[in-house]
Structure to design on (261 residues):
């Protein structure tokens, strides 16, 4: 009887040892881990490092059509080619511009005067050097005889010796949209009046201020809070173009509008 109990205990010990070993292997042993490899990004339009040739995905046709529809009578399509600021000679400002110009070829229905090309340096993750990545952006800019909208500001132009009223439907329509945006967001508007060099410095400073104030008054009339608007004048001190020609002087008679987030 004693020998039988010893044998039974030995058998139970073996069974428990096997069960522990099995559960440890299944639950607790160190497993082999596969490290995921970074794969190419996907998207409607991508570029390889150092290349300006667009690589188009299946979503590009619908994206292209959607972008093209935003360009109207008083607007232009701004195509911005990005390049990486990591010092690699394969990524330069010229590559960014070339990306914008190569992308332009995909919008054959748009006339040349409906397009703006820019190159913009951005910080990049250099681990993607051997992969495809996004490197072009699109913006619709308002551009008329009275308005030029750029990335960081909008230039609103005035006729010679004019400052008392806007006298432009295009400008009013544009400012209506600005007012709606600012009312909703509480962003701030900075207005800076400029003039040509015809007249005295003092009178031009006053005229620049009046032009900025006219735009401020219009925005306030549309519901923008006064404290959200700053209006100043630089008079003739910061010309955009040469004052020796009428064309240049016309470009200097303006008010710059900036929206500060």
């Amino acid at each position: 009887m004693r020998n039988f109990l010893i044998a039974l205990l030995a058998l139970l010990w073996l069974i428990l040892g096997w069960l522990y070993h099995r559960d440890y292997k299944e639950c607790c042993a160190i497993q082999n881990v596969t490290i995921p490899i970074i794969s190419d990004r996907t998207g409607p339009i991508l570029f390889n490092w150092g290349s300006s040739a667009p690589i188009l995905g299946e979503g590009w046709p619908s994206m292209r059509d959607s972008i093209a529809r935003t360009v109207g009578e008083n607007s232009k399509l701004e195509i911005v080619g990005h390049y990486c600021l990591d010092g690699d000679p394969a990524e330069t400002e010229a590559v960014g511009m070339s990306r914008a110009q190569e992308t332009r070829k995909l919008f054959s229905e748009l006339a040349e005067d409906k397009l703006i090309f820019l190159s913009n340096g951005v910080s990049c993750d250099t681990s993607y050097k051997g992969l495809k990545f996004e490197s072009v952006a699109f913006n619709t800019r308002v551009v008329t005889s009275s308005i030029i909208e750029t990335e960081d500001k909008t230039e609103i132009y005035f006729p010679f010796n004019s400052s008392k009223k806007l006298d432009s439907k295009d400008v009013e329509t544009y400012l209506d949209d600005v007012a709606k945006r600012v009312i909703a967001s509480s962003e701030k508007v900075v207005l800076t009046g400029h003039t040509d060099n015809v007249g005295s410095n003092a009178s031009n400073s006053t005229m620049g201020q009046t032009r900025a104030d006219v735009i401020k008054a219009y925005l306030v009339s549309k519901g923008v809070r006064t404290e959200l608007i700053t209006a100043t004048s630089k008079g003739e001190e910061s010309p955009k173009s040469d004052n020796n020609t009428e064309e240049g002087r016309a470009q200097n008679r303006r008010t710059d509008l900036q929206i500060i987030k």
User: Anything to note?
Assistant: The chain is about 35% helix and 25% strand. The first strand starts at residue 45 and ends at 48.
